[in-house]
Structures are given as C-alpha cells and as structure tokens.
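Here's what a typical entry looks like (DNA-binding transcriptional regulator, ArsR family):
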Amino acid sequence: MSEHEQEQTHLDIDEETLFIVSQTFKALSDPTRLRILHLLFQGEHSVSDIAAKLSLLQSTVSHQLRFLKNLRLVKFRREGTTLYYSHDDKHVIDLLQQAIEHAQHH
C-alpha cells in the first residue's frame, strides 16, 4: 500500500461513524449534560438524586438522560420503581475527563 493509499484510508470515515461522533460531541456541548455525565462518572445515581445534587428539575434530568441513553452514553437499572443511572461509555468519560483537565490547566 502506497503512502497516499494509507493516508486516504485514515481520512475516510463512513457516514455512520461521522454521525455517531458528531452526536457524541453534541451531547458533550451542553453544560447540563456535562454536569450529569461528570456526576455519573463518580457513581450510580437515581434521577431524583441527580436533580437534587445538581439543583435541577427532575423533568430536566429525565429529558437529558433520555438524550444520553439514546446515544448509549448512560445506562440504567431498575430497582422497584426507581431507575439508577450510570455511565455506559468509558471512552467518552475519558474524553470528558481529559477536556476537564485541559480546561483546569489554563
């Protein structure tokens, strides 16, 4: 494989990958979603716990969690009538942690 062919292979990204990457960055572009993901990085929390700890309405938390769940960035388990959420993508959490560290060093 020539150097040009290798370079071209690295530049080509299929449409599905482009879409997923752009949606991931869209998810990370919202301060409320960032706060929720950062909290979930520290451990599992219920919707009411997230709302209380971040001073948000439960409806706001539920809406944002639905968005994050659709992107498979969070997952949940049910215990009785309560849903407990946790992060579901170590890569995205690592990206978030690196971005936070980058911002704190400026």
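The chain has a mean pLDDT of 89.

More examples are in the samples folder.
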